[in-house]
Amino acid sequence: MTPDICIVNFYSTSGRLGLHQDRDEREESLQKGLPVVSFSIGDSAEFLYGDQRDVEKAENVLLESGDVLIFGGDSRHVYHGVSSIISNSAPEELVQDLEVSSGDLVL
């Protein structure tokens, strides 16, 4: 049995991720309808999502450090992406504990 896919996206302060659907998992995982789970750590990000691959029609939500987003059920194949990163928005405690500058801390 092969493990399911786990993807970690690291964004720089100028990072982005175009609208896309997550469909690269094993066929078995897709058939089971296993959800996509996203954890946000570090700087905040402008997150886009929608039924179409069209940035103009996509909804926008701010994801902050500590936010968890789950795509499951009918929303499993929603188009989603990151339009921008908000530099220096990571929680100060996180920046101090990791001893990095906030602009370097975007996952």
TrEMBL record:
GO function terms (MF aspect): broad specificity oxidative DNA demethylase activity; ferrous iron binding; oxidative RNA demethylase activity
Keywords: Dioxygenase, Iron, Metal-binding, Oxidoreductase
Domain of life: Eukaryota
GO biological process, any: oxidative RNA demethylation
Domain called Alpha-ketoglutarate-dependent dioxygenase AlkB-like: residue spans: 1-93
Binding site for Fe cation: 20, 22, 80
Family per similarity comment: Belongs to the alkB family.
Protein name: Alpha-ketoglutarate-dependent dioxygenase AlkB-like domain-containing protein
Natural source organism: Pisum sativum
